[in-house]
Design a protein that fits this description.
Elements: E1 2-6, H1 20-27, E2 32-36, H2 45-52, E3 56-61, H3 75-95, E4 99-102, H4 118-136, E5 141-144, H5 158-168, E6 173-178, H6 179-185, H7 189-196, E7 200-205, H8 220-230, E8 235-238, H9 260-277
Parallel strand pairs: 1-2, 1-8, 2-3, 3-4, 4-5, 5-6, 6-7, 7-8
Helix pairs in contact: 2-3, 3-4, 4-5, 5-7, 7-8
Length: 280
Amino acid sequence: MKLGIHAYEWCGEWSNDTLDIIDKVKEWGFDFIEIPLMRLDLFDPRAVKERLDGFGVTTSNVLLSDNVDVTSFDPEIRKNGVNYLKDCVKASAEAGAKMFSGVIYSQYMKDAKKMPSGEEWKFSADSLREVARYAADFGMSIAFEPVTRYESYLLNTAEQAVRLVDMIGEPNVFIHLDSYHMNVEEKNFHDAVVTAGSRLANFHMCENDRGIPGTGHVDWDGIFQAFKEIGFNGYLGFEGFSDCTDNMSTWVWRKLAPDGDTFVRESIDFARKMIQKYDL
């Protein structure tokens, strides 16, 4: 199991001006950093790879806008979405990443008025199958993250994510669970992780309020027991927001930790205690 953290703990937008965050993550003793590709135009793969110097990295894209929606009924928009995700994969590979994940299966916060149709599920699966095959050429995997019903009309649960993985049918496609979203959408934390099973490659350790893990009501024992049962050995990362930000749809308007260092220190301590407790 690899322990890492999202760059959002220190910045609201990634660019070459934030490359020093990689050094911070190394200093804290993590195994990898997760870098967002929200602004692909500001992501410099060569500079990132040079700064990483062999350090572990994953990349993520947390939204698709309406002009790159792979569930759109407009084939040109779906094509734009596939090309955009391919660009993300290529940039990730050039930076040294082996995993690209996120809310990459439909438009983020789509103004849907009804349940997604079978055709929309197929649009997503067909699009991501093409992206996955492209990623395989770079030796990369992709994973998608179910989020709350307020953010996606397509994937909210581990069970739905398994359905989409099976529809895509490619060996390099996995699931990325996040305990913040699970707290809203899943009946049981343990059972959701077990449902994802061997398909689970990424996990965001987030408290129910997105604050420091272990300070809220997320069932961490259930989660780590499930990790033990399924033999989880993927990317275990923190996605925290210690400060308010105005350029992401996080709806965090209060400080969730005294400061970034406190969030990191207490999160690491908690995760390592749980890893030791369950002999992972």
